[in-house]
Specification:
Elements: E1 4-9, E2 12-20, E3 26-28, H1 33-37, E4 57-60, E5 65-68, E6 71-72, H2 73-79, H3 82-91, H4 97-109, H5 115-123, H6 130-145, H7 154-179, H8 193-202, H9 213-226, H10 233-243, H11 248-259, H12 267-281, H13 285-293, H14 314-329, H15 335-348, H16 351-355, H17 362-373, H18 380-401
Antiparallel strand pairs: 1-2, 2-3, 4-5, 5-6
Helix pairs in contact: 2-9, 3-18, 4-7, 6-7, 6-11, 7-8, 7-18, 9-14, 9-17, 9-18, 10-11, 10-18, 11-18, 12-17, 14-17
The chain binds acetyl coenzyme *A.
Length: 428
């Protein structure tokens, strides 16, 4: 196969190198294009743009493959824990016994927030969205921690990675408690990562919450499935912010803001709201799909479609089975799960969705799991953010590890006014 491509511009021929990734995927290296031709590329939404070389996550969207550091997502979901997967994503290898114990211990020891940070929660208005609180509090955390992170110093990075992952979980639970006017529950050192989060979410001063193994397992799997997803909107945001040399905490706070939107992480809550609306209004899945297909309507089938997956999203497959398993173990019959199945089946038989290769994505079934656990709707995207922390940290590290890294600075094609003459105020 050719290792260069030729393009002809204004009668002159230029050669561009073709570079190949580990799994044989090929890319046109245009890094010298502007210098040599004076032209830039135009790629709205970056759909054809590879923004970096990365060793963290591999996706084949046509075949529905997702791997962290070479390990298939299905294997990790079944066999690994979130803490172990986080270590793998950030440091590139599965931890041995000693590394796992040390990382776990650091997560446990860093779970408490500085007491003065607790006061910040009182300053947010009641009913503030927890994503706004999470982003603000991660920035606030950087004023307490003053992180001096050397990405090349593994021990130092491990310490800060553990601190950030651990405290984000505490902030998330505390933001929920303060939003409902309940006292904030402190973390416990005898509980593991997921159980400690559930304790801070659901314990009250007069009663401890004990997570069942099924609930704990389902949330653990949820976090594993969300741990990284290469250059998505929020991870690219983290990289952009980091490329200006902002610290890890500032970059991750930006990642939270980017994740919030309905087209990205916010879709998990939108899916449940969509299912509730269909149920409430008593419309059939077909009627709802007609609304979605109507060009004059802004309604989308939330939890469907993906920029990269054009066959199936392997995470949705795992989550669908996990949702069914969890509900049956809890002896819950959730009509929203039945409705989700019916919608998905109706879309599968509809040309609009088939032609556009629209399939359920990670968000389609995840809300059903969170609902069964008792997580309130406005916390769904916060839970996604807790899960995505390892991916953001790993991408921050990878970018900072690259000595040749330049600031992210795309160009544009200007289509505004041509040169204007200044008009004095009295003549306008
Ligand atoms: N419902 C209805 N139509 C859709 C949907 C959907 N969910 N998704 C895409 N389409 C249609 C588009 O209208 C477009 O149709 P057209 O060619 O006739 O104009 C076509 O499919 C291609 O869609 P694009 O918007 O170009 O796809 P893009 O890659 O830009 O967007 C996205 C991907 C944002 C995920 C989109 O599919 C969407 O909005 N889905 C619903 C929201 C959602 O579930 N987001 C979560 C994604 S996973 C994640 O971020 C964690």
């Amino acid at each position: 196969m050719a290792d260069t491509a030729k393009i002809e511009i204004d009668g002159k021929c230029y050669e561009l190198p073709i570079v190949t990734g580990t799994e044989g995927e090929r890319a046109l290296d245009i890094s010298k294009l502007r210098a040599e031709t004076g032209l830039i590329t135009l790629d709205d939404g970056y759909a054809n743009t590879g923004s970096c070389r990365s060793e963290i996550t591999f996706i084949d969207g046509d075949q529905g493959i997702l791997r962290y550091r070479g390990y298939p997502i299905e294997v990790l979901a079944e066999r690994s824990s979130f803490v172990e997967t986080a270590f793998l994503v950030i440091f590139g290898h599965l931890p041995d016994h000693e590394e796992r114990e040390r990382f776990s211990e650091q997560l446990t020891r860093s779970s408490a927030l500085h007491e003065s940070m607790m006061k910040h929660f009182d300053a947010f208005p009641t009913n503030s969205h927890p994503m706004a609180i999470l982003s603000a509090m991660i920035n606030a955390l950087s004023t307490h921690e003053r992180p001096r992170i050397d990405p090349g110093d593994e021990q130092n990075l491990e310490r800060y990675a553990a601190r950030l992952m651990s405290k984000v979980r505490t902030i998330a639970a505390a933001s929920y408690k303060s939003s409902i006017g309940d006292p904030i529950i402190y973390p416990r050192h005898d509980l593991k990562y997921v159980d400690n989060f559930l304790h801070m979410m659901f314990s009250v001063p007069y009663q401890n919450y004990e997570a069942s193994p099924e609930v704990s397992h389902a949330l653990n799997m949820f976090f594993v499935l969300h741990a990284d997803h290469e250059q998505n909107c929020s991870t690219s945001t983290v990289r952009i912010v980091a490329s200006g040399q902002a610290n890890l905490y500032a970059a991750c706070a930006s990642g939270v803001s980017a994740l919030w939107g309905a087209r990205h992480g916010g879709a998990n809550a939108e899916v449940v709201q969509m299912l509730q609306r269909i149920q409430r209004e008593g419309i059939t899945p077909r009627q709802f799909l007609s609304e979605v297909k109507d060009r004059t309507s802004p309604v989308k089938l939330m939890g469907f479609g993906h920029r990269v997956y054009k066959n199936f999203d392997p995470r949705a497959k795992v989550l669908r089975e996990a949702a069914e398993r969890l509900l049956s173990s809890m002896e819950i019959h959730d009509p929203l799960l039945d409705l989700a199945h019916e919608l998905s089946e109706a879309a599968r038989q509809d040309d609009y969705f088939v032609e556009r290769k629209l399939y359920p994505n990670v968000d389609f079934y995840s809300g059903i799991i969170l609902r069964a656990i008792g997580i309130p709707l406005n916390m769904y995207t916060v839970i996604f953010a807790i899960g995505r922390m390892p991916g953001w940290i790993a991408n921050w590290r990878e970018l900072n590890d690259n000595p040749g890294q330049r600031i992210y600075r795309p160009r544009q094609l200007y289509v505004g006014n041509p040169l204007q003459d200044w008009v004095p105020r009295h003549q306008r």
